[in-house]
Structures are given as C-alpha cells and as structure tokens.
Amino acid sequence: MSTRSPFPGLSFAGAIAFVTGGASGIGLETVLTLADLGANVAVLDRTPGAAKDVAGRLAQMGREGLAFEGDAGDEQTVVSAFEATRLRLGPVTVAVACAGILGAGGPVFDTPLEDFERVMGVNVRGSFLLAREAARQMRPLRRGAIILLSSLDGLQAEHGMFSYCTSKGALLNLARAAALDLARDGVTVNCVCPSVTKTPLLEGRLAAIPNGDEVLRSYAERHPLGRVLTPRDIASAIAFVASPLATGITGAAIPVDAGIGATWDNFRDPPWVRRDERPKEGAAAPSL
Q1: What pTM value is reported for the model?
Q2: Of 117, 202, 238, 288, whose CB is crowded by the most CB atoms within 10 A?
Q3: How many whole angstroms separate alpha carbon 164 and alpha carbon 102?
C-alpha cells in the first residue's frame, strides 16, 4: 500500500503568477486572492498607472509584484512581460487571462469588421499569447496551471452580443486544444465561465443606458441564487482550479453562474408555487 500524503490545502506559497487585466474587476480580485494565498504576482494592464498601483498593494501585503502596462493582445508586450517576470521573479507557474472587452455590441448583421477584430484581438489573441508564453516557461518545470476567463456567453449565446459571444466561445476550444498539447507536461489548461458579474466593465455599460439599475435587478432575478456575482466569486473558482488541489482537472469549462445553467428558462416561481404558503423552517410538513 502506498503512503498517503496529507491533504495539501489551498496554498500558492512559492508560486509565480501572471495575470492580464489584473488592475480591475475579476482580474484585480484574482491578483489579490492569489497573493492572499502566498503567490508573487506580475500584473499586465492597459490602463496607465493601474498595474503599478496594484504592485504597490502587493508590496503592502508582503508579496513581490511586477507591473506591466500595455495591450494583452500585443505579442511583443506579452513576450517581454513574461521574460521580465522570469528574470525577476522566476518561471511563471500560474497564468490567468482576465483581460477582455465587450466591444460595441450588436447583432451579426450590424457588426463592423473593426469591432469584431478588436474584440477577438483582446479576448482570443490575448488569451492565446498568455497560454503560449506560460506554456514555454511551465513545460521545463513539468507543472503549471493556465486559466482563461471565458463566460456563460461562451457556453451559450446572447442576442445582440455577436463579437463577444464568438470570442468567449473560441476560448473553450482554445483551452481544450492547449490542454491536450500540454497534458503530458503536467500543465493544466481550463476555462472559468462566469455569468453576470458586477465589475467596472459591466457598470460602465449599464451607466450608458437610462434603465441600468433596472437591468441589473433583472439579471439578479434571473439567477436562481437571486443575485449577480461578485469578482470574489470568480476569483475563488480561478484560485481553486489553478491550485494543487485541481491537478486532475484540465480541458474543462467551469461555470460560475449563480445556478442559471441548471434551468432552461429564466428562474422564476411558476404560478403553482406560492412562496407565502411554504412552511416555515422547522414547521411540520403537511400530511398527505
């Protein structure tokens, strides 16, 4: 009988992480969560000064942080940032592609080529570049985890969001193909697929329409859990699937969707279910 090793727990002590889009929303919470759990983190973000601010927060937490400013879809930016991380912190062992844009939105018949290519450039090309550069550093180590941030719009589709849905759907097979390429190297590749999450990206979109608050409430009501998700909900799933606890998971699309994937329709009480008639907790069930 082989000797059983103790359950390892959720720890990133000694890990070197690289996160794109790491200065806001899900990306920022992912950076801070990984740092909470022991990782040193390199952050790439396009907003001037934002990655540097995050690196300062990491230093206050007692972690080493590197800041890179630029476009996650630009090859030279990503290649240089990965190489600088390797030289200053060590080889990357956890890589997370959180950089993403919604685009202008619209149906296929109203989508300009420029908008389509811009969305695909950040969401798909950026994820490819992260996966490729991470794989090049992880393969010699025979370990590592690559996480791509897809969406519920990658698993299904949403009317009027053609470019975004196409890009997020592409990430599912990008992860599967990369997972197979890297499986014998001990490197896992997975997608995390959130439903509606309250991030600056979403808040900016809702602020541009007159009934944004109403739309946000409607999103919450459609989720069986009765709320929209938070960046921490998503970062927690990313941390798990990137951790030593999840080395048996690869090529997967992991939904974090507040339960909406369990129903074929918007979640609501059918007319034959009245909540005010349900027995209170601890009350005896009605006899048949």
Answers
A1: 0.90
A2: 238
A3: 6
